[in-house]
Write a structure and sequence with these properties.
alpha+beta; Alpha-Beta Plaits; two-stranded antiparallel ribbon; 2 helices
Amino acid sequence: MYVSNLSFRLGEQELEDLFRQYGEVSSVKIIKDRETQRSRGFGFVEMPNQDEARAAMEALSNYELGGRNINVSEARQRD
């Protein structure tokens, strides 16, 4: 899943803990700027079970985390 509008101070463990409430999380990656290593405000969460992932997506879209309402959607392949 693609997760955007993340607080720049949010860590991967916090994001994983949030999604783990809905099922097994296989990976979490917050994308960082190559030069500054500062969060770019978005990341990806992988959950192996489709039903759990769908439940997390529905429950967490527009969820307030770190003072911001996060967006959760299905990740798409880059062209």
